[in-house]
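Worked example 2:
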Amino acid sequence: MFTDNVELTVSSGKGGPGCVAFRREKFVLNGGPNGGDGGRGGDIWFKCDNNTHTLSHFQRKMHIKADNGQPGESSNMTGKSGAKKVIVVPPGTQIIDAETDEVLIDMTEDGQEVMLLEGGKGGLGNTHFKSSTNQRPTYAQPGEKGKSKNLKLELKLIADVGLVGFPNVGKSTLISTVSNARPEIANYEFTTLTPKLGQVNIGDYESFIMADIPGIIGGAHEGKGLGIQFLRHIERTKILLFMIDLASYRDLKEQYEVLREEVGAFSQNLAHNKYAIALTRVDIVPQEEIAELVGGFLELLGLKATSHSDLDFDPNIPFFIQKTADATLGYEQTLPYFVVPISSATHKNIEPLKNALFHLVQVTREQK
């Protein structure tokens, strides 16, 4: 089960108490104090691991504790320190203080380890309290208490490209076609109930990550539909691919404007992201209507169809792509990088779409 939001309490270990002991050996008269110190309590650490992608291994309202330090022993032996507790989370997890809503740690890179709570110090044994006036101290320090904190863990998936569209627009079909993701696909709305990540391979050694989230409807940023429950999963993406259904009962312009409005209302950062547009389901639109629909949509956006392309888009169907995009010159970010009609079912323009998205991902990475 995919889980992206949990609450838990974490506690570091308390320090072990110091020891009260005295030297007792044959032929040693009046042996002095030799009580050892208590061990340190275990720390609480968080570790980011690419091998996990959900928070479902956390139980509801669970309490995670580090080990306590062991008491000191005689012969000035220090007690064993408590083992640190390492909590493994997927990339994109934010550790938030449940009481103040402050983001304490943002786990974004594989292998990242951060200590959140330090364990209590061990108490001093009675050997530390001997003096010329107190040669037989009979007391030792107790260990320090550990620290506790109530936390919220929120997962925001990290991907290069995020798919945005109305329900049943073909997002799941596309990500299953171009990547290794295998989401549920059916001919009804809200088939996708949880986000999906897929790796899109370009050749043998290059790839990018694509994220599919449940469909967006008008008012999603206010919680309608699946709403903000999953909109946050595209908040970390640098590129958005708006998917607009050519065969939908919704007008093309209406789909585009609602999607842009909902994304912008949810996050101003997303509103200024690089984006592109895929016009889906070319396979079920009559051939004679495709050029008119696509051409009319390009005119609404103030764009002119591209006459040719280095990416081998079907020349018989109008499309738009900005030709000047590179790491130094950039391109006009107020306009889509491309507008291309596709069909995942018949693989129409799918390979060129992958290559165009990869080129945009490369430009974005180099501009960081």
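Residues 1-155 form a domain with the Spo0b-associated Gtp-binding Protein; Chain: A, fold (CATH 2.70.210.12). DSSP finds six helices and 15 strands in the chain.
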